[in-house]
Q: What sequence folds into this?
């Protein structure tokens, strides 16, 4: 079986709200394998988004270990995290998070700008990515000139342009209609599969979970159940 | 992130909010311009002093007096010469001293100076004038300004240069008639004139035993300026005339004349030292003082004038500085506002791989741009203002002027840019510290 790219060991995250302590993630251990599509499924407040933020190094766990390629993410400082995100991680957000003043093309090249890739190569690679998501004709449009689906395609292109080892998607279709949702999911899983990239999707939507190799169901900050479709074949509603 | 991308992105971010950027830049423009104009008025003030003093004589010339004589004592304002005398050192202002001055670093020319009041005759007209004897080779370097003809040079012996203010008159006329008649205008250059120590020269009381010396006028000096009433002559010739005069006096008075003692040693009353670079004047002057001589220069006067206006110039500079401080606060304010607005953008950049350094540099660059643009436009405004000040001052006949040297232009651009960077530092630090997550969550 493939290697574990991320190993999570007994991770807890406790928020302090006034005098109350809220245990958003309450002792989760999980391994994510290289090349799999892993879905963190749960209702609002189940701790799924917090878990994603912890894995991606956007937040620090209160306790526990998160190991990415043998490196402890929870021990990294801001500079190391920036470097880590630049090299290994891509993000797709519910609200696209494109920079409104940049064109689609420029948005896609942004990660490469921070990586100091020369202009020519940057633009070639961005065009290639835009072709992959079917938006080469919109390359020079600003985000506000595009539909939600198109914007999300741009953000997918941006997430994949740096060939990251892992792509995190937080409710990637939350703002899209049903038809576009399927298009988007087909696209993102296909892109991940093509280069054996790991995809971690956070959603509350059971339909999206259908695209996953493994579904991790979360509730009240703990793992309720893990459904591994690579082992239990053909189990569908 | 490459520098080019950084500049590109910073510029783009600024252009996105044109009005706000413009207003912030405007603050810097006003700040820069007010500093530059204020400083330029201060500089103009000093320059006009220098010009004023230049008209009295060269600023690069140091006048050296013997500590033994009493010439120039009224100018003396420090005790170095007296101290040197107390130590028992008897310094003489003689040919050896002249030579030692000549050897000093930065000295361009040295000449001993002798002053003597003599009569000058041209045809039937005469004039009385102060004759200055000097080393003819040094005349040009010593800053005597020639109006017509030429200055004396090393080969001149029986040549003189006459000041335009020297007034000729007919000795046959009495005072009243002289006052009422126009002074005759003479074209002296090229003419032979006579020089005599006889005070009655040309009149009917003239002493026929005194032989006048013939000199050729090679040039004239302008009537305004400190040497307008003087006649310049090679010092050797003047010394000869003085000697003859003393002998004549001795003969006439029978016993020793008043000036007899002077002859004991060949000491000069005064030596002029010309320094090549005005910056070295004070150093050379100090060196001469250290040898035990008394030394004064117009640059002392200039320094004193500058000193008295220092306070005024500082106040002017402070007024300018205050407006630049206000501009700096404006930059900081704009950048802090920008961070609030762009919290999300900063978060996105962080999440997709911007390093802390990238974020910090981006904001610093934007602030630096504001400063730089303000500096550039500011000096443009200062240039126009400076011309305007000069124009108005000229119209009113005022001596005030504004002068902007190139270093002030370049310095103020650099200064404005640095102010920009400094003002941007706090906001940049703040942007850098924003957590990527909280930045993204802002909706």
A:
């Amino acid at each position: 079986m493939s290697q574990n790219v991320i190993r999570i060991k007994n991770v807890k995250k406790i928020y302090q709200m006034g005098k109350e302590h809220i245990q958003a993630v309450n002792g989760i251990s999980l391994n994510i394998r290289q090349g799999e599509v892993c879905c963190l499924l749960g209702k609002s407040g189940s701790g799924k988004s917090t878990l994603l933020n912890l894995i991606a190094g956007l937040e620090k766990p209160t306790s526990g270990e998160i190991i990415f390629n043998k490196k402890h993410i929870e021990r990294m400082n801001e500079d190391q995290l920036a470097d880590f995100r630049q090299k290994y991680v891509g993000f797709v957000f519910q609200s696209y998070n494109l920079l409104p003043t940049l064109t689609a093309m420029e948005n896609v090249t942004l990660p490469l700008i921070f990586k100091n890739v020369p202009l020519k190569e940057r633009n070639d690679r961005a065009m290639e990515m835009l072709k992959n998501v079917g938006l080469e004709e919109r390359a020079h449009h600003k985000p506000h000139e595009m539909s939600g689906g198109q914007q999300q395609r741009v953000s997918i292109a941006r997430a994949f342009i740096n060939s990251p080892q892992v792509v995190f998607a937080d409710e990637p279709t939350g703002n899209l209609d049903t038809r576009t949702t399927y298009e988007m999911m087909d696209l993102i899983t296909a892109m991940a599969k093509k280069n054996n990239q790991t995809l971690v999707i956070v959603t509350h939507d059971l339909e999206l979970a259908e695209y996953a190799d493994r579904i991790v169901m979360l509730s009240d900050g703990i793992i309720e159940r893990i459904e591994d479709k690579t082992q239990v074949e053909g189990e569908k509603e | 992130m490459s520098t080019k991308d950084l500049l590109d992105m910073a510029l783009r971010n600024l252009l996105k909010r044109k009005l706000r950027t413009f207003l912030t830049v405007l603050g810097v423009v006003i700040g820069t311009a007010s500093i530059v104009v204020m400083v330029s008025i201060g500089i103009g003030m000093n320059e006009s002093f220098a010009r004023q003093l230049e008209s009295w004589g060269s600023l690069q010339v140091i006048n050296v007096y013997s500590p033994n004589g009493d010439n120039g004592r009224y100018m003396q304002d420090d005790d170095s010469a007296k101290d040197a005398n107390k130590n028992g050192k008897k310094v003489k202002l003689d040919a050896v001293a002249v030579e030692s001055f000549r050897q000093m670093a930065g000295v361009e020319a040295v000449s001993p100076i002798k002053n003597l009041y003599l009569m000058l005759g041209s045809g039937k007209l005469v004039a009385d004038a102060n004759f200055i004897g000097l080393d003819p080779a040094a005349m040009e370097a010593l800053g005597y300004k020639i109006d017509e003809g030429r200055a004396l040079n090393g080969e001149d012996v029986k040549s003189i240069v006459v000041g335009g203010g020297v007034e000729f008159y007919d000795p046959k006329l009495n005072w009243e008639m002289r006052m009422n008649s126009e002074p005759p205008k003479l074209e002296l250059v090229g003419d032979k004139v006579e020089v005599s120590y006889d005070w009655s020269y040309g009149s009917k009381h003239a002493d026929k035993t005194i032989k006048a010396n013939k000199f050729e006028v090679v040039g004239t000096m302008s009537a305004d300026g400190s040497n307008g009433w003087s006649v310049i002559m090679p010092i050797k010739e003047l010394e000869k005339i003085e000697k003859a005069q003393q002998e004549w006096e001795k003969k006439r008075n029978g016993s020793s004349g008043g000036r007899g003692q002077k002859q004991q040693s060949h000491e000069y009353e005064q030596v002029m030292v010309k320094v090549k670079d005005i910056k070295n004047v004070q150093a050379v002057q100090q060196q001469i003082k250290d040898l035990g001589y008394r030394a004064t220069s117009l640059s002392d006067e200039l320094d004193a004038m500058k000193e008295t206006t220092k306070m005024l110039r500082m106040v002017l500079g402070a007024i300018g500085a205050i407006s630049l401080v206000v501009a700096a606060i404006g930059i900081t304010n704009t950048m802090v506002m920008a961070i609030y607005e762009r919290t999300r953008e900063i978060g996105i950049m962080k999440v997709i791989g911007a390093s802390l350094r990238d974020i910090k540099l981006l904001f610093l660059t934007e602030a630096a741009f504001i400063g730089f643009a303000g500096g550039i436009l500011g000096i443009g405004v200062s240039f126009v203002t400076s011309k305007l000040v000069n124009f108005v001052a000229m119209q009113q006949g005022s001596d005030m002027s504004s002068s902007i040297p190139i270093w002030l232009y370049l310095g103020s651009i650099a200064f404005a840019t640095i102010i920009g960077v400094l003002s941007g530092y706090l906001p940049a630090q703040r942007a850098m510290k924003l957590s990527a997550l909280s930045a993204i969550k802002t909706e």
